[in-house]
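Hey, I'm writing a tutorial for new members on how sequence and structure tokens pair up, and I'd like a real worked example in the thread rather than a made-up one. If someone can provide the structure for the chain below, I'll link this post from the tutorial.
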Amino acid sequence: MNRYEAPSLRAFVRSQYTNRGYAVFTPDIVYKLNDPGMSSLWCVVPAVKAAIAKGVVDADKVGLHGHSWGGYQTAFLVTQTNIFKTAIAGAPLTDLISMYSSIFWNSGSTNQPIFESSQGRFTSGYHDNLDAYIRNSPVFHASKVQTPLMILRNDKDGAVDFTQGIEYYNTLRRLKKPVIMLQYTGENHGLRVPANMKDYQVRMAEYFDHHLKGAPAPSWMTEGVPLIKVKEHLDSREALVAPAKSAESK
């Protein structure tokens, strides 16, 4: 964690943020069985408070980012705490009940082992442990979200099904919560098309700069981009990022 991370097109590169005046903190999470989401709350919030106490982190300007399982933790944490001013969740699990019996399309297997013998750390399926699955699913606590959230959700995601992001996004929208969704057409669990990678990286920086540094919000954040105007929107951003015709933002 202390090695220099060379700049690249990966979504979140620590050095690209520390070079621009951010402090980047990666907390450790100690898990308790049947509580993967709550475990992140019990570990991350005290860790952030400790970093604030040391004077390294500004308590009023703390952002949160995670992808995949980290995206799940991000999506969950904003339902449990308001310590973060903004958050970005990449490819998050949001409904652990519907996720449990769906398919991990990249391999063709069911998702059940993920919950019972891998990252989920549940002792059984939801049929025997319903309260725990509900307690740790972001979508069931969406009404408590106050933190502005941006979700990355690719339509060909073979690890965390597209519907996981849609379910959370639509629920938050229905509740009039501050949420933005980015979709990159044809992309899997992570971005691979260089133009899309650069586009997402730039939007992440714009999003954090607005919420944490007070930079003006670009129009795609405040107004959204209708599908029929995506190409026109991307062409207008050529100075910031190479055209990415497969990228869509809603």
